[in-house]
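Entry for the shared binder. Reason: the reviewer on the internal report wants the predicted structure included alongside the sequence.
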Amino acid sequence: MMLLKKILSISTIIILTAGYSTKAEACEKNFTYAASGSITRKNIDNLKKIFIIKRNKIQNPEPIVLGDFESSLGFSGQLIKSTNNGKIEHRIWIDQEDCRRNVKASFNNNELSHVKISGF
C-alpha cells in the first residue's frame, strides 16, 4: 500500500513536470527571451493605472515608455521587430504558463504608440 502511494505520487509529479515543460518549450520556440516571466491580472491592472495616470495629466500628459512596461510586468519583453533604423520597436511579453496571455506593444522613439493585451 505504501509502495503504491509512492509510485502514484512520483508518476503524478512526472506528468505535471512534463506538461509544464512542454508548454514552456512551446512558448520559447517562438519567443526565446520573452517567455520567462509571469503575467498576472494584477500586472495588467498596474499597467492600466500607469496609462490612466500619465495620459490624464491635463497640463502635460507624460509619454508611456518601455521602462513603464518592464516595471509593471516584472520582466523585459523580447524585441520582435525593429524598423526605421530602430526608431520603431515592436516588443512582446509572454506568460510562461500560458502563451496566450501576452502583451504586445509598439514604441516609436521609446514612446508607446500601440498596445494589445491578449488572453485575460
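Summary line for the report: The chain has three helices and four strands.
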